[in-house]
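dude i think i finally got it to work??
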Amino acid sequence: MASASDNKVTCKVCGDANIFTISTAVNVYCECTNGHSWREPYQDQGGMYPRPHKPVQCLEDLLTPNEISLYQQLITEITRDIEYYQTADPADKAKRLSEICGADSKEIYILFKKITMYQNIMKGG
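look at this
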């Protein structure tokens, strides 16, 4: 699962201690809030992370039930007014999504971060 703050490790590039992690079948994908990414081995490979019982296989594996609900609300809203979301200022988009979906900007950020990380893993990042 992804975690918003994993104090076991810091970013090797910028020193950020806010690390998101995703357990894959082979290793742990790590990404700091600044977007630097790397992979860490599991304990049985000489690393510090225990191997999970079930690695992430699809986006939903990363999300909590509340995040799945928020994800569905965001998709519905973005699809409803796609032209606005393609052209509006990022801060305005975030504010509007927050108001319409009843979520704070941090919740939306974490959800989008998880989605982006999952996409990066699927691309081999």
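The first strand starts at residue 19 and ends at 23.
im so relieved honestly
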